[in-house]
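Sanity check record (used in CI):
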Amino acid sequence: MSSATTRNIKDANQKAATKLYPTRNDIPEGEREKVVAVMNARLAELIDLALVIKQAHWNLKGPQFIAVHEMLDGFRSGIDAHVDEVAERLVQLGGTALGTVQLVSQNTSLASYPADIHRIEDHLKALADHYAGVGATVRKSIDEVEGYGDADSSDLLTGVSRTLDSNLWFIEAHMQEGA
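Expected output for DNA protection during starvation protein:
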């Protein structure tokens, strides 16, 4: 049995969130701290999005089930790849990736995903809202980390933004009536 208390774990998580580890990366420490904070915020949202994609994937019901079910599998794989890239980037900068479910829950800016929906249309609307929310914060962060002197993190987030926009387009196309 672990002797760690909830308070000790929360205190350790707070210290991990703010402490930078030594690196020879030439971005000044103060700027790296800011980038790590931004990237951890985006990490929380991307993990949250990955989880809600699976929530929808498992619980879809309706006539287009198999098409949407398989589409969401591909979306999840793409988001998982970006989660890994974002987490690894902030660790490269000397930070700690904060990716536990508890920390994600504390740090995501996304609204809670409804657990009581099943119709494909309802899931697509909820997913579109989540994709739009993450897309907006990622786009804001592209310029923000560039301003901190980290063109590499900015470039990484640009790739994330393209994936989010592409997936949102597919979701919205499923929701729209033909011309």
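The chain has one domain: 25-172. If this sentence no longer matches the regenerated tokens, the check is flagged for review.
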